[in-house]
Design goal:
- The protein is 39% helix and 17% strand.
- It has twelve helices and ten strands.
- It has helices spanning 22-28, 47-54, 102-105, 116-125, 127-132, 154-171, 177-187, 190-194, 199-207, 212-218, 220-242, 275-278; strands spanning 2-3, 13-17, 35-41, 59-65, 96-101, 135-140, 250-254, 259-260, 266-267, 279-285.
- It has an eight-stranded mixed beta sheet.
- A hairpin with a 5-residue loop joins strand 8 (259-260) and strand 9.
- Helix 6 (154-171) packs antiparallel against helix 7 (177-187) and helix 10 crosses helix 11 (220-242).
- The protein starts with a strand and ends with a strand.
Length: 286
Amino acid sequence: MRDQDFLDSEWDYCLVLDACRFDAFSEVYDEYLDGDLEKRRSVGSSTPEWAYRNFTDQYDIAYFSGNPFINDLGIPLNELKWGASCDYEWTASDHISQVFDVWKTGWDDDLGTVPPEGISEAFRNNREAVEEADRTVLHYMQPHAPYLSRGKGQKLKQIQKGIRKQEEAEENGDGDGGALASMSDTLRTNVESVLDGSELAQKAGLWLELDPADVVKNGTQEAAMGLYEENLRIVLEDIAAFIDELDGDVVVTADHGEAFGEQGVWEHHIETYIPPLVEVPWLEVE
């Protein structure tokens, strides 16, 4: 299995599916898209790590981001204590020529995330920027939770709310580390703070998105993976309808995968290099 080589590979448009593991993608993609599929190894097991390790220089890219960690705010990842929990002194605006914060403009309060059509709409509204850039990235949130059929999105709502507050603090000149640290405490849910550090805590955020009846009937893993696959199908269906608008070489890949209890890991965490988190699809679309 070769490395992802995200920026060193040939493409005009790269569609990044957040938290998309290879095995799930390989089972369903050909119902929606044609192309040559490879399994590749991501450099990170979470979005902040993937961005930090890939974007090390300056790049002429129009980046449509549904993920709040890749934003045009100029706030380093290591200051996003409430969400990123990393030491990476990295900001997207220092490395990417144009970042479109679709996590703000295309946000759906009811779903608690950016639905796939929010990315395509942002693309259509900024075609001039796309034409000026060397390459374009469209970063979809799906199949990452929240699961669209549930319409909850509590965990991502907290991140989105937090980054808005932090943006306001920066604009008001109140961007010191102490303020950010105290903000992080208010954004963690009670259950996560009580269970912090345990395997149960890793499941806690996931449980916010699940149907309790489904969990009781099928177990946490099967219930979660069922909704995860549904989220993947939703974004693939949208991409299939949209992809003809892209004039050039198109690749569909992921920043990282998602774990459902493998080796005791749930969801995705920084620097956790297990197959479900680092094995990602690389589809060169025909």
